[in-house]
Design brief:
The protein folds into 4 domains: 9-90, Sandwich (Immunoglobulin-like); 100-197, Sandwich (Immunoglobulin-like); 205-303, Immunoglobulin-like (Sandwich), CATH 2.60.40; 308-349, no CATH class. It contains 1 helix and 25 strands. The protein has one helix at 145-150, and strands spanning 10-12, 28-32, 37-43, 49-55, 66-74, 82-90, 100-101, 105-111, 119-122, 125-126, 136-140, 151-153, 159-162, 173-182, 187-197, 205-211, 215-216, 224-231, 241-246, 251-255, 261-266, 277-286, 293-303, 311-312, 336-337. It is rod-shaped. It comes from Sterrhoptilus dennistouni. GO terms for molecular function: calcium ion binding. Keywords: Calcium, Cell adhesion, Cell membrane, Glycoprotein, Membrane, Repeat, Signal, Transmembrane, Transmembrane helix.
């Protein structure tokens, strides 16, 4: 009997036979077993009585899938004799139960460097129906294409796997819906939340926003030479950056209040005659384990200042000449040098 059969439905039963005659063969019936069913006897033409099983209330296979009844037939003799038959009723399933997820929200925290085709979590839905009515398949709900590009759902097992590379710097959390459907078309839904955990997969980046070059050699200590932006796309300790200058240079790093900008300033006086330019290497290191680094090279040219006087090759020149030397004769050549360059190093004599 199908569980969708409405109360009041009748099911004819086999009639009993009695080979006696007269009142000894007059039959009555009695039903025992469960109040979900009752017995009705219909008088047939010719005097035979047809027993019928009457459904009294709605069946629910998920609550009770079978019934055991006993039908007894009594004759009219004295003493009465009886015969019995067992009635076994199987309740046929109807697809009257939708799948039910074990949770309304499934959560997982995964590292962004998780390999493709890794299992993130497994959803599970059960269906109280039997057979194909209780067979559940899983699929995505109405989700964006970006979610389908990164995640996949096994329609039979309910395993949610990675289908693409995750990137914490692109997105830190994904929320999407899954659907469970039985073969009869009944559905239910759940929500999946995937939190992406940052790993130290980005090296610091140094960008030169401005550079004052050349720098006059007479520029005072503290003069700003360059403005730099230091950025690490990771978060937390993985994104905390410290900077240092490699090698010897008359410059120092000053951090801005926010920490993302660095200022290069003169730490001591320049001397173009000692070094006409300075090649700087700035290294940034993050706080990851292991740490990642980034570098930038900066060339600062020193602009000459007229800070050097001409210097004669000799402090005193002594020349002996005869008194009859002709007018216009060269007596001596003096030389002077100037450590400056350009106009600052051009020498005139008087």
């Amino acid at each position: 009997i199908g569980e969708w059969i409405p109360p009041g439905a009748r099911f004819p039963l086999e009639m009993a036979r009695d080979v006696d005659a007269g009142s000894n063969s007059l039959l009555t019936y009695q039903l025992k077993g469960d109040s979900s069913f009752s017995l009705s006897v219909q008088e047939k033409p010719g005097g035979n009585k047809q027993p019928e099983l009457v459904l009294e209330r709605v069946l629910d296979r998920e609550k009770q899938s079978s019934f055991e009844l006993v039908l007894t037939a009594f004759d009219g003799g004295e003493p009465a004799r009886s015969g019995t038959v067992q009635i076994h009723i199987n309740v046929t399933d109807a697809n009257d139960n939708p799948p039910v997820f074990s949770k309304s929200v499934y959560e997982a925290r995964v590292a962004e460097n998780l390999s493709v085709d890794s299992v993130l979590l497994r959803v599970r839905a059960t269906d109280a129906d039997a057979g194909s009515n209780g067979r559940v398949s899983y699929s995505f709900g109405n989700v964006p294409d970006a979610v389908r590009a990164l995640f996949a759902i096994d329609c039979e097992s309910g395993e949610v796997r990675t289908a693409g590379a995750l990137d914490f710097e692109e997105k830190t959390k994904y929320i999407f819906g899954l659907e469970a459907r039985d073969s009869g078309g009944l559905t239910s839904h759940c929500e999946v939340q995937i939190d992406i955990i940052d790993v130290n997969d980005n090296a610091p980046e140094i960008t030169v926003l401005s550079l004052s070059s050349p720098v006059p050699e007479d520029a005072p200590v503290g003069t700003v030479v360059a403005l730099l932006k230091v950025r690490d796309r990771d978060s937390g300790e993985n994104g905390q950056v410290s900077c240092e200058l490699l090698g010897e240079a008359p410059l120092s790093i000053v951090a801005s209040p926010g920490g993302s900008y660095k200022v290069l300033v003169l730490a001591k006086a320049l001397d173009r005659e000692e070094a006409a330019f300075h090649e700087l290497v700035l290294r940034a290191s993050d706080g990851g384990d292991p740490a990642r680094t980034g570098t930038a090279r900066i060339r600062v040219t020193v602009l000459d200042a007229n800070d050097n006087a001409p210097v004669f090759s000799q402090a005193e020149y002594t020349v002996r000449v005869p008194e009859d030397v002709p007018v216009g004769s060269v007596l001596v050549t003096v030389t002077a040098t100037d450590a400056d360059v350009g106009l600052n190093g051009q020498i005139k004599y008087s």
